[in-house]
From TrEMBL:
Coiled-coil features, chain-numbered ranges: none
UniProt domain EGF-like: residue ranges: 54-65
Signal peptide: 1-18
Keyword Transcription: no
Organism per entry: Aspergillus lucknowensis
Phylogenetic classification of the source organism: Eukaryota, Fungi, Dikarya, Ascomycota, Pezizomycotina
Name the record gives this protein: EGF-like domain-containing protein
InterPro entries according to UniProt: EGF (IPR000742), Glyco_hydro_beta-prop_sf (IPR023296)
Keyword terms, alphabetized: Signal
Keyword Nucleotidyltransferase found: no
Length: 406
């Protein structure tokens, strides 16, 4: 899938020659800036100096390797708004609405996949996300793309934007969310403002993806700057055994703690303008460390809200990157993905909203992106939403074939 009409502007390399690079940062740290000889000129007897161009890692493309190479998705995928296998109290006028999600392969059964996502209690939809949102776990035995079926409620409302990581140091799964427990049943599916309801960041732990999960412990109060929308990543590596946890939050700020339920210290805030209605306005980050030890994040980019009077599409995905966790970080101002999804039947659909991006990576140590997971909302919808999973590049085919799905 290729994106038309992107904004060809970069905070990292403005004015760079098309297809040329000087450093790996010019390749978004998703590839290598390497020498290439202009072999096509040799038959004419002309010997030119080699130039340097970006050689992109699998799953990424573009002059700066800054775009996810999205491929057609099946029409039935992800976690959709159907009543199948769902507790009846969660099915109402907005269907089984969900928002975002994260995939895990079961460590004991490689053909079983788990999806952790936000769902909305009492039959409410996305417009009533705060305080009706809670965390669910769904299962797929059809492969990582799904479709997924409801398996269990992992939390009560209000818990939103779940992100799960495996901590090798603790030998536990860690579930980070925003929210607080709410025992009040509300009649209307409307959403409260953040001033009425806190976005505290909390963490829960479990030995198994199916639980049981420990009671949530608050690690960052909503009174702290940037304290919403957690994006954790363990600092443990085979060479560096540590319990330290990186926690990205709103505005792509970064905290670190010595242990998952310890004290989190702010170590970096971005140098660009993170305020609302700026060209670099983002939310809902997802952080990871690649095979070279470099750092990346995807975020919801609000550029069309800024430039087109509140429109939420089509440019929705931002990619930022840094060689070191504390920077400097770089933001190439073009979309990493947009809100159009192509399907295997040859059709396509441009969505009104495509947010909460998360990536499922290969398990071979290469950190190749295999699937992009998003919360989506179709044009004309105001509350019904679902979770879409779209394959990336070519490596996912071998992954699914190895598991016996294709």
């Amino acid at each position: 899938m290729r994106f038309p009409g992107f904004l060809a502007l970069s905070l990292a390399a403005q004015g760079a020659t098309s297809h040329a690079c000087k450093t790996d940062e010019d390749c978004s740290l998703n590839g290598i800036c390497s020498r290439q000889w202009p072999w096509s000129d040799y038959p004419n007897g002309i010997i030119l100096k080699p130039r340097k161009v970006c050689k992109c890692d699998p799953g990424w493309f573009g002059d700066d390797c800054g775009r996810l190479d999205l491929r057609p998705a099946g029409r039935i995928n992800g976690y959709n708004h159907s009543a199948d296998g769902v507790e009846s109290s969660h099915f109402g006028p907005y269907g089984n609405s969900s928002w975002g999600g994260q995939i895990f392969q079961d460590p004991k059964n490689p053909k079983l996949f788990h999806l952790f996502a936000s769902q909305f209690a009492d039959g409410c939809g996305l417009s009533g996300w705060r305080p009706h949102s809670f965390v669910l776990r769904a299962e797929s035995r059809n492969g990582p793309q799904g479709p997924y079926q409801f398996a269990q409620s992992v939390s009560k409302p209000f818990r939103h934007n779940p992100q799960v990581i495996w901590s090798p140091a603790d030998e536990k799964y860690l579930l980070y969310t925003i929210g607080v427990d709410d025992n009040v049943k509300r009649e209307e599916c409307t959403s409260l403002s953040y001033t009425q309801w806190p976005n505290n960041i909390s963490v829960s732990a479990a030995d198994d993806l199916q639980g049981p999960w420990t009671p949530f412990e608050m690690v960052l109060s909503s009174k702290e700057p940037h304290s919403t929308n957690p994006a954790p990543w363990p600092l443990w590596t085979p060479e560096y055994h540590t319990s330290k946890i990186v926690l990205g939050v709103e505005d792509l700020a970064i905290f670190i703690a010595d242990k998952y339920n310890g004290e989190y210290e702010l170590v970096h805030t971005q140098m660009w303008n993170t305020s609302e209605w700026s060209p670099t306005w983002t939310e809902d980050s997802f952080f990871w460390q690649d095979k070279r030890g470099h750092w990346h994040a995807l975020a919801h980019w609000m550029i069309d809200l800024v430039e087109h009077d509140g429109q939420k599409w089509p440019r929705v995905g931002a990619h930022v990157f840094a060689k070191d966790l504390t920077g400097p970080w770089h933001f190439h101002l073009h979309e990493a993905f947009n809100s159009t999804v192509t399907y295997t039947d040859g059709s396509s659909q441009t969505l009104d909203r495509r947010e909460r991006a998360k990536i499922f990576f290969s398990d071979d140590g290469e950190m190749t992106p295999l699937y992009l997971i998003n919360g989506v909302q179709e044009m004309g919808e105001r509350s019904r939403s679902s979770t879409v999973i779209q394959p990336i590049g070519e490596k996912w085919k071998k992954y699914e074939k190895r598991l016996g799905f294709r």
